[in-house]
Design goal:
Length: about 170
């Protein structure tokens, strides 16, 4: 979604994100048992670490997908690293027993792509927008589609571009 359509800002502090990710783990504790986590990078890394700790999960895998290429425009989906065959072989058919974690489901494009890879997995996000919400089994907070969430790793006192993009 382009910046001109984003009307609302929702800044999330580290403390708030940690509380929300722990609330997600609490909610997921009754949805398992899970044999492992697949986190969708990059946004799913932090909540997956918190959920893994809280649920005592040790098998953590990543699926690396690029969709936001400039922080404001969701572009073509690109799988940079698929889910390891060793992980999918260790669980039930279609990913049964796996928990897929991401920070946010927005339009649902990323979730749909991963859901095609792991149709029987349980999908969880900390935040959900209406277009993507039907693809998620568990989430904590719903925000409107026209809200842009500023995650703590994107902010200092103001937005901080990644070092790769020339930040000092």
């Amino acid at each position: 979604m382009s910046d001109d359509r984003q009307k609302k800002a929702f800044p999330v502090s580290w403390d708030q994100f940690h509380r929300d990710a722990r609330a997600l783990a609490w909610r997921l504790a009754g949805a398992g048992p899970f044999e492992g986590i697949v986190c969708i990078t990059r946004g799913g890394l932090v909540p997956a670490a918190i959920v893994a700790r809280e649920l005592g999960l040790r098998m953590i895998e990543t699926v690396c997908i690029a969709s936001y290429h400039d922080y404001t425009q969701q572009g073509e989906m690109q799988v940079l690293k698929p889910i390891s065959g060793a992980v999918t072989a260790a669980v039930g058919e279609g990913g049964r027993g796996l928990l897929v974690v991401d920070d946010l489901v927005d339009t649902g494009k990323t979730a749909r792509l991963v859901r095609d890879m792991l149709p029987a997995a349980h999908f969880a996000t900390v935040y959900a927008k209406p277009l993507g919400r039907p693809l998620i089994d568990t989430f904590i907070t719903e925000v409107s589609q026209d809200t842009w969430i500023y995650f703590p790793w994107d902010m200092g006192l103001s937005f901080q571009p990644p070092i790769r993009d020339g930040a000092a």
